[in-house]
Structure formats: structure tokens, C-alpha cells
Write a structure and sequence with these properties.
- An eight-stranded mixed β-sheet has the order 1-7-6-5-2-3-4-8, sandwiched between helices. A six-stranded mixed β-sheet has the order 10-13-12-11-9-14. The protein has a four-stranded mixed β-sheet with strand order 16-15-17-18.
- It has four domains: 170 residues, Endonuclease, Chain A (2-Layer Sandwich); 139 residues, ph1033 like fold, CATH 3.10.590; 52 residues, no CATH class; 89 residues, no CATH class.
- It is an alpha+beta fold.
- Helix 4 packs antiparallel against helix 7.
- Helix content is 33%, strand content 22%.
- The relative contact order is 0.08.
- The chain is elongated.
């Protein structure tokens, strides 16, 4: 069914039955909106609640208050000009979509010549759902709460009192919830809705990674616009290991929850590379704010702001170190002395500085990958292969502590964790019968290798790489047997 609804659109729609839930994207919301829009508790309205729209009187906060009190989820997106309503659950078979010109206002209802198309095509509804998700998950989207409405009321001016246009305000950080999200690899095939969503957003965000993450039972309230700090966790493990490092922060653009399927999946977009933190670092920051830490779920506004600041500082420090080392004090190739370039993996947002970087592709592994290359002779290697601090000989445990910046075995283990990012790591000192230092044992999981003194730091790190590879093979074998 495709029906043209023209002239008095809102009057004509009074007889339409809208299957729930209902999601609407209507640019401007007049005082009559609660009467015009078929929205109830749990339904969604995306609208233009920018400062310009409020000051110009085109969006009325009193109407938003009525809808908010009714239980409607409200999302403000500056510069929105769409008029779309989509009704019915994905996969239910009963869906309706309206696409037209009418705002939710008295002028649209009584004065303006409007038109809209109404259809029950499920494919059109699915595409409309994706588009509303994209607007809801926009970085500038604001998820409305009571504080937002109270602020909007101070800005709003009726259209009879025009004011100069004001610049749309950027969303406050409090409107972007940050979740701790443990993630276990799931080999089950993606549902058709997941595949369609991934394909859609991959075509829209070509410079970002688009992934689907199956949500645990406690994460079902994740919504578009939320940000996830994802930590890998083994199947059956309660929470990530303390030294497990997060992926760069991902933004949720759609939550897939098909009728009859208990599985929830968050479709996320995020950078291929970016700042990250270990699980224990996040936990320490949350506790330092006096907040209770949970292995899964949204952080409080204050804790989320603290974690975001720490991530930004981490990114800033890394950039400063890289620029200082490679632009101001460039490192020469060990073979021909030409300035080395840092290997940049993934798809960068813009052209990288050719004096500092070289593109290394999007495929990582297997085995250790080069971190630096020479543009002249083609030499490639890792920093530890040629850095004077790495090829130096370690004669004693104190020498090792000096290289790692540690004071004891525990802090040395922490330094190794920061370098290698895998778990569980251990370090032990071996002595002979006379009590003299004989060697250091590197331990990963249940496997240990003794490094007899003296040894070079290259040998030290290569030993850890070998342990990691063996550990990963063991993990893969256990997964296959299961």
C-alpha cells in the first residue's frame, strides 16, 4: 500500500492506526505536537532543539515537556529538517511509514499546503529506522532530560517576538553516556537486520570502523548515541583481566533487537586507532571519584568525564612523544641513516604527514609487525631491534629495573603489561645455591622461560613475544575443542 496524504495531512492521519513502537523525526515541534503526534511511553521523537530553533520559536519546550512526562524519548539534532514517522517493530510484519513535509505545528495542520506518502512497505520502514538511528547517534545529538528542557525554556521565544539567530549549542558531555562493555567474541552468524545495518553504516562512515557487538543482558538499555569502552573478555570469565586494554571508544549508531530474537546487538562506529586504557586504570579512576565500579554498565556523569579526560591526555601525550621523537629529533635508519617513518595502520581520517608516517595497511598480524620503516632502503623493524636502550645488556635485576623504570618485581610486571597488553603476566628472580642472581623467569599463563643473566633487552622482549604466540595458539586450540 502506498497512499498520498495531501492538504490537511494531520487531520487525515487521525484515522490511521499506528502499530507500536512509533519513532518520529519531525524538525519543528509546536505547542500542538502532543495532540498531533501518535507518541506514547517508550516511543521516540527526534527534532531540532538547537538554540536557533528555540529562540526563533519553531520548537516549543512546553510541548516537549508534555511528551517527556508522557514517557517519550526525546533527541535533539541541530539542523534537522526531516518529517518522518515509522511505526511497528522490526520483523513484526506490520509496519507503517510516513514521509512528508508537515511539521508538528498548528500552521502545518490548518494553514499550509502539505503532502506526505504513507506506506506499509517493510523495506521502506527498515530504511527509515536506520536513518532515525543515524540521526539519534549523531555526535551532536542531545538526549533530552529535565535539565535540558529547563534550559530550553530560558532560550525559547514565541515567534511573535523574533530574535536574531543564535548559533546551535554543542551537546553537553552528560548527554553522551559512556559504558563499560565487556565483549566476548561470538562466532554465531549475524542476523539479516545486523548485516543490513552494518552495510548501511559502512557505506556512510567510510573512514571509520563499523562493527557489531552482541550485548549482554545487563547492556540491553544501550541506545544510539551512547559510547562504549569495549574490553575483550574470555567466555565464562566474569570480567576483563586488569591489564586488558580497551579498544578506542566506539559510538553506538543502532541497536538491533528483532522480534522473537532475545539477542541484542549494538552497531558501533569508531576510529581504527585511538587512545585506550587498561581495565584496571578505568577502575582506579572511577574509585578515585568515590564512585562504585561495575564490570558492565554506564558510568556516572562525573566518572565518565574523568575517564574521557584521561583518554584525551593519553592521546595528547602519545602525539607529543611521537612528534618530538620523529620530527624534532628524527631517528635514523640503522642501515642507511635515512629518517625512519612510523607505520600507521588502519584508515586515517586524513592524509598523514609523509615526513613522519607511512601507511601500513589494515591487516594486523600474524606475529609481531614492524613499527618503523625506512623510505630509502626499505629496512623495517620494531623499535626494540635498534633502540640503544633495548639492545643494551642486562647484567642484574637492578639493570632490568632501570630499563623498565621499575623499583621491584611488581612494578616491573606492570611495565611489561603496559608494553605487551596481554594477561596473565608474571616475573620471577632465580638464584643459585649461593644466593647469587642467576636469571629472570618470564611467565605467561602456565608457561615460563628462564632468561639467564646477562641478556639483552631484545632477547627479553623476543622471549615475551614467543610466550604470547604460544599462549594464543593454546587459547585457539581450547576454543576449537569447546
Amino acid at each position: 500500500m502506498i497512499e498520498l496524504v495531501s492538504e490537511k495531512v494531520w487531520e487525515s492521519l487521525r484515522t490511521v492506526t499506528w502499530p507500536g513502537p512509533v519513532r518520529a523525526a519531525i524538525a519543528y515541534v509546536g505547542r500542538e505536537a502532543p495532540e498531533l503526534l501518535p507518541l506514547g511511553a517508550g516511543d521516540t521523537l527526534v527534532f531540532d532543539g538547537s538554540d536557533e530553533s528555540l529562540a526563533g520559536g519553531t520548537t516549543n519546550p512546553a510541548a516537549l515537556q508534555v511528551l517527556f512526562d508522557r514517557g517519550v524519548v526525546l533527541v535533539s539534532v541541530a539542523r534537522l529538517h526531516a518529517k518522518v514517522i515509522v511505526a511497528g517493530a522490526d520483523g513484526s510484519g506490520e509496519r507503517k511509514t510516513l514521509v512528508g513535509s508537515a511539521n508538528a505545528s498548528e500552521r502545518s495542520r490548518t494553514s499550509l499546503r502539505e503532502a506526505a506518502l504513507l506506506t506499509d512497505d517493510v523495506e521502506v520502514a527498515a530504511r527509515a529506522d536506520l536513518q532515525i538511528d543515524e540521526w539519534s547517534g549523531d555526535p551532536e545529538a542531545e538526549w533530552v532530560d529535565q535539565e535540558w528542557i529547563e534550559r530550553a525554556t530560558t532560550i525559547y521565544r514565541p515567534r511573535s517576538v523574533p530574535l536574531p539567530p543564535r548559533r546551535a549549542g554543542l551537546p553537553r558531555e552528560s548527554h553522551r553516556r559512556l559504558w563499560i562493555a565487556p565483549w566476548t567474541p561470538d562466532d554465531s552468524p549475524a542476523s539479516p537486520a545486523e548485516e543490513a545495518a552494518i552495510e548501511h553504516f559502512a557505506s556512510r562512515f567510510t573512514d571509520l570502523s563499523v562493527e557489531s557487538y552482541r550485548l549482554s543482558e545487563g547492556d540491553i538499555f544501550v541506545r544510539p548515541g551512547d559510547e562504549l569502552l569495549l574490553f575483550a573478555v574470555k567466555d565464562g570469565q566474569g570480567e576483563p583481566h586488569g591489564n586488558r586494554r580497551s579498544w578506542p571508544v566506539s559510538r553506538v549508531v543502532r541497536v538491533v533487537n528483532e522480534v522473537g530474537d532475545p539477542t541484542h546487538a549494538a552497531i558501533c562506529v569508531g576510529p581504527f586507532e585511538g587512545p585506550s586504557m587498561t581495565y584496571s586504570e578505568v577502575r582506579r579512576l572511577v574509585h578515585a571519584e568515590g564512585e562504585e565500579f561495575h564490570a558492565s554498565g554506564p558510568l556516572t556523569t562525573r566518572a565518565a568525564a574523568t575517564v574521557r579526560r584521561a583518554l584525551a591526555e593519553t592521546e595528547g601525550r602519545a602525539a607529543e612523544v611521537e612528534v618530538d621523537a620523529l620530527r624534532e629529533r628524527p631517528i635514523g635508519c640503522p642501515r642507511c641513516e635515512t629518517r625512519l617513518r612510523v607505520v600507521l595502520r588502519g584508515l586515517p581520517a586524513g592524509p598523514p604527514d609523509p615526513d613522519v608516517y607511512v601507511l601500513g595497511g589494515c591487516v594486523i598480524g600474524p606475529g609481531p609487525m614492524p613499527t618503523h620503516v625506512c623510505p630509502a632502503c626499505g629496512w623495517e623493524g620494531r623499535r626494540r631491534d635498534w633502540d640503544p636502550e633495548q639492545v643494551r645488556q642486562v647484567e642484574s635485576l637492578d639493570d632490568l629495573f632501570a630499563v623498565l623504570g621499575a623499583t621491584d618485581l611488581a612494578s616491573a610486571t606492570d611495565a611489561i603489561v603496559d608494553e605487551l597488553d596481554h594477561d596473565p603476566v608474571g616475573l620471577d628472580l632465580h638464584k643459585d645455591a649461593d644466593g647469587n642472581e642467576m636469571g629472570v623467569e618470564a611467565i605467561l599463563g602456565t608457561t615460563g622461560v628462564l632468561l639467564e643473566l646477562p641478556f639483552s633487552m631484545v632477547e627479553f622482549w623476543d622471549t615475551w613475544d614467543g610466550l604470547r604466540d604460544a599462549w594464543q595458539l593454546q587459547e585457539d586450540d581450547e576454543v576449537e575443542e569447546a
